[in-house]
Amino acid sequence: MTISGSITADALTKDSTFVQYTERNSGNMGEMDVSGGSSFSLGEDQRAVQDLVRRVATERVAKRASEIDRTAEYPQDMFDLLRELGLLTLPFPPEFGGSNSLLSSCVAIEELGRVCYNTAYLLLVQWTPIGGILAGGTEEQKQRLLPGLANGTLRAGFSLTEPQSGSDVSGIRTRAKRDGSGYRLSGNKIWCTNAAVSDFILVAARSGEEERGAINFFIVDRGMKGFEIGRKEDKLGARGVPSSALFFDNVYIPPENMLGREGEGFKNVMEALNASRPLIAARGVGLAQGAMDLAAEFVSNRQAFGQSVSDFQGVRWMLADMAIGVDAARLLTYRAAAMIDAGAKGPEMARAAAVAKCFASDTAMKVATDAVQLFGAAGISNEYPINRYFRDAKVLQIIEGTNQIQRNIIARTMLGSTKRKV
Known about the structure:
It contains ten helices and 14 strands. The chain is globular and about 80 Å long. The protein folds into three domains: about 10-155, Butyryl-Coa Dehydrogenase, subunit A, domain 1; about 155-265, Butyryl-CoA Dehydrogenase, subunit A, domain 2 (Beta Barrel); about 265-415, Butyryl-CoA Dehydrogenase, subunit A, domain 3. It is α+β, with helices and mostly antiparallel strands.
């Protein structure tokens, strides 16, 4: 499949990743051997993706960003644009028309996130299920679902969160009870992003006879009897991509819709979710870069006390701190993506991904907060876009594993699991 702008999917293989990952020390995250030198830059293929997406973001996406946020309506035109450009295929294996490159995917999300969080989010929600399907799905499930996700004829959601348990995955109560060769699914979920437009949703539920049975994932198709999607939430940020509650009333799930074997699917899917966290980090990098750009432009065009606001040392230091944070977040994000492209797994991969997600989203929040401050009263006016960046940044610190959970993951790789009191 060809990506518009003369970039071919075949050219964007992970073999051309801008770095080679080598583990120099046996205990930690390892170091990056960067193309045999000390430079740290994108390769030719990633530059091509960057140039294409930046041009499209500037010319076609930016002008829609405020309206998408204001109306909180799903941006079908933006989804169609991403599909037309072939960007949906980026992280997919070559047999499904993709480049198998998490790094190139992060670059695309960052460039879109600079101008429109919601359009960048369209890529993320399309990509979230694919790792789990590749890791835990049967060959039939892969052939049934992945081609449609890659070409945009299918859309999907991913559902873990329940009313009584957000970060506590072990608290899941939705049950999948045996019914012949299949299952009956009962329970409810909240905050399922993209559910309102999804053709199917990967739903986590407990199976087995014990109350605390194993957690598995099930493919729930739109229209299954007893499955209902609730109203969309009225959100602070990320307003253009709907999040909804899900209700399951004795929904029959055929055996071919269980992802992986009973008792094994959850581990595979969660490992894949860890591997997707650099994509969330990339949204943080893009958001922070966009907020910094807006702040720099604003203070450069404002006068106070007989001089440009950008000439005040305090203002310059604020912008310098923004630049430091954005550069560091970008390097951590690209590093994690390159590690995963090179095959990193387990605790090493989980830590790198958690560090990137946590630091990049915290940086996005700080940069957006300081940018609003530099805008002054204009920063709290809906006539200026900076308050949108502020609201979207807060969402990033919470979704896809709160930053407190990311810190727990990092600490666990350093100190081991906590010892719970009986």
